[in-house]
Amino acid sequence: MTQGIEEYQNSMASIELEKNPGFAYQKHDSTLNKTIAFRKVQLGEDLRRIHQWMNQPHVIPFWNLGLDLDKMQSHLERAIADTHQTLYIGYFDGVPMSYWESYWTKDDIIAKCYQPHPEDQGIHLLIGEPDYLGKGYALPLLKAMTAFQLQHLATQKIVTEPDIRNQKMIHVFERCGFEFQREITLPDKQAALMFCSRDRFMEKWES
């Protein structure tokens, strides 16, 4: 049974956030009986973890960040300092296993590909730990991040642009409520431009 968006968001906000002050967002997914959480990336804690994830065979073709450790540190330092985005580590039942970038589209390269509203947000993600692949976890994780972004009440649209070759991820976005717009050319890839409106997300996940 699916949950309404208000129930979905409220349940996350109410689960022991005071016991986990480092988490920016947390919820218990009743369909999996698992807890999903996100916290901001910290360079000292996360450099080696993200470096390992970016060098996984399933990640390299879509992120092109299979760098050595020093170059990864420089990349992350720039990314963390970039005020148009916030980087997160995603947790699944207390285990760090995914990497996320939440960004304001008006200040991103994607703004050249459509007419952004100032409050539109975008998502980049990867599941870094191979043990979590192919188990149906991507959709509940994506639902949680989308609900997290929609806590910013002025945001009416979430945008994503997965690599056009990544059909598995495109399918997950579609299941979450994102709709394919068109294929676009970005500096590092051919991508599928996809939108999810607040109204569509609410309608799709209402009980």
Main traits of this protein?
single chain; 207 residues; alpha+beta; Aminopeptidase; 33% helix
In short:
With 207 residues, the chain is of the alpha+beta class.
The percent range for strand residues is 25-35%
CATH architecture: 3-Layer(aba) Sandwich
What CATH calls the topology is Aminopeptidase
Q: CATH H level: which superfamily?
A: Gcn5-related N-acetyltransferase (GNAT)
Structural class by helix and strand composition:
alpha+beta
Class in CATH? Alpha Beta
Strand order of the biggest β-sheet? 1-2-3-4-5-6-8-7
What's the average pLDDT? 91
How many structural domains in the coordinates? Answer: 1
Number of separate strands:
8
What string, H for helix and E for strand, traces the elements in order?
HEEHHHEEEHEHEEH
- Amino-to-carboxy terminus distance: 7 Å
List unreliable stretches of 5+ residues: 8-19
Q: How much is the radius of gyration in Å?
A: 16 Å
Question: What is the percent of helical residues?
Answer: 25-40%
Main beta sheet: strand number and arrangement? 8 strands, mixed
The outline comes out as: globular
Count of alpha and pi helical runs: 7
Structure notes:
- Residues 36-199 form the N-acetyltransferase domain.
- It comes from Laspinema olomoucense D3b.
- Keywords: Antibiotic resistance.
- This is Lysine N-acyltransferase MbtK.
- It is built from 7 helices and 8 strands.
- It is α+β, with helices and mostly antiparallel strands.
- The chain has one domain (5-204): Aminopeptidase.
- The chain has an 8-stranded mixed beta sheet, sandwiched between helices.
- Mean pLDDT is 91; it is low at 8-19.
